[in-house]
Amino acid sequence: MPARGSMATEASPLLGASNGDGNGTEAAQQPPRRYNLRTALGVSGLVITLCLMAAIVVSTYPAQKNANSLTPGSDPGSVPFEAVDHPQKPSTLWGSITRPYPTGAWWLNLVVGDGDQQAVAHPYAFKTTSKGLAVSYSAYRRVMSDKSVVDIFGEDWTFGASAAVLDHYMVRYDLLTAHMYFVCAEAGSFKALLAKGSPYATVEYTRATPELKPLAPIVSVNGEAEDAMDSYEKLVSGTRFEVLLGNGQKWLIYASAPIAFNVNKSGLTAVEAYRGVLRAAFVPHGCESEMSALLDAYANGVPVAGTVTVDYGQEGEAASQPGEPA
Q1: 76 domain-assigned
Q2: Which of 25, 59, 62, 211 is the most buried if burial means most Cβ atoms within 10 Å?
Q3: Which domain holds residue 10?
Q4: Where is this region: Disordered (predicted)?
Q5: Cis omega before residue 100 (within 30°)?
Q6: Number of domains in the chain
Q7: Cα 168 to chain center, whole Å?
């Protein structure tokens, strides 16, 4: 039939040679059939080889994974990396605080390494030094460019004591606050009460004689100008002190209990050991009266701890927003 002849003529060479009329001879058809057999055997052998290789890989992989597991003897699901110790060990700056240690906390620079890098709490930045707590209103030295805004740290005030500081370390922390304890040579101590976002730098003294040193010389205290000689001292006492510095900064110093200071251009030194809280607050230019009144109103409220909570509301209800009833 024409259709069958046409199909035979157009057949693949693997099906045998044709004599032109659709009837291939026996001799012409035999070699292709032997070629098909060899091809089939080759393909089968290749498939078997691949299956064996896959079986070997699957059977040996768990053993390799166990050999390199994170913890010796752990199950095969462990991360296949070698366990190593961090080269920077927790120092004595952590005090009695135990693991787990936080990472990325805003105050972490006070306990990492030598603890001499700044911790930025806004609006102030802090450093711990051999003399005490250094306080910086870094925005006062802000440098701006098209690509960056840099607030330069400066020790605008250092809260210390007349006796030498022997040691310091962290005593407590939470998400919003951190307390750094300073031990003095004459049995006294003081503690920096750092609070994120607080407009006051706060230090609590216990039987230590406070000594407050500014970066720039003191120009006046409570409106009374200082003498040009550094050796000149005068006595001021009270619970609130308005201090003007030679670099143009204005600060308010608050005391939780009455205190007397000997004042000269280089700082304020208490006349005796003190038990109470001292606070310093920067007064921005251009709004001195308003800001001073606001700082005065809240100077007695000292934050010592903080928590952060999120209220998602009841199931099916919208979450409450700040300032709205839950």
Answers
A1: no
A2: 211
A3: 2-64
A4: 1-31
A5: yes
A6: 2
A7: 21
